[in-house]
Amino acid sequence: ELHETVKNAYAFTLEHARRRPQIVLEDLHVDQFDKSIYRIRVRVANRGQLPTHVTNKGRSLRRLQPVRASLAPVAGVELLSEAGHLELGHLEGVTGSRIAEWFVAVRDESGGVAALGELYVAGGTGGDIRLTVELP
Prior knowledge:
- There is one protein chain.
- By secondary structure, this protein is mainly β.
- The chain has one helix at about 1-20, and strands spanning about 25-30, 35-45, 65-75, 75-80, 85-90, 95-105, 115-120, 130-135.
- It has a 4-stranded antiparallel β-sheet with strand order 1-2-6-4, with no helix packed on it. Strands 5-3-7-8 form a 4-stranded antiparallel β-sheet, with no helix packed on it.
- It is elongated and about 75 Å long.
- It starts with a helix and ends with a strand.
């Protein structure tokens, strides 16, 4: 009976791991409004089956941090939005998502700027993502 019990426990563990929270970036758009002003907009989503707080108790645990998104402009780019760091909260499984948006201005007139900034999403239990936001 031990062999069957271990086999089933192993299968349960693998299935549970497959359902984990999984943070992804979707619909990243960089829109240019004039010669130097850009809007960066992205959907931060949890496409795993479990929410980022995993259980109801997880919402109150400090170690299960909510999802946060931040944009760090590169040299020659200025952040115009009030905050570069956004608290998105916990995201539900499969359909949970939030829109993150920043406005930036390219101040380097020499044309030496190839990217607008570094996007970092701290997804807590859903994983972290780093992405360079390129000029369109």
